[in-house]
Amino acid sequence: MIELTQQPLSPQAVIDRIQSGRSGAVATFLGVVRGENEGREVLYLEYEAFEPLAREKMQELVMEIKSRYGVGEVAMSHRLGRAEVGEVVTIIAVASAHRAEAFDACRYGIEQLKTRVPIWKKEVFRDGEHWVGG
């Protein structure tokens, strides 16, 4: 399950979509907008993506994670548009028979999402703004 949306993300809704009676573990990662970066107050973030390619890369990554870690279900959700401090902007959730695989797959998922999927972040401060990464 992959999702790119302008709407607020619901961790519980994502978990509910992947959890089943076959899973003994569900590991999640939540990326949250923090109010400070490198000593500067962050007012909000803005995310943009090349959506067709981002969806394609996310789907490829989900399939890779399932194959590599032998897990049951994998979900990736990412917020686009403006996100306020404290809001969830990224969710990686992995359902698996066992916890070790779920944790490993979840960590791999977020690390790869950040490097392989064309999603860009702009940090907005009181005294300016800048694009991060990409």
Account of the protein in words:
The chain is α+β, with helices and mostly antiparallel strands and 134 residues long. 34% of the residues lie in helices and 42% in strands. It has three helices and nine strands. It has helices at residues 11-18, 51-69, 99-116, and strands at 2-5, 25-32, 36-37, 40-49, 73-79, 81-84, 88-96, 119-125, 128-132. Strands 3, 4, 6, 8 and 9 form a five-stranded antiparallel beta sheet that branches. α2 (51-69) packs antiparallel against α3 (99-116). The two termini are 24 Å apart.
Brief write-up:
This protein is α+β, with helices and mostly antiparallel strands. The protein has three helices and nine strands, in the order E-H-E-E-E-H-E-E-E-H-E-E.
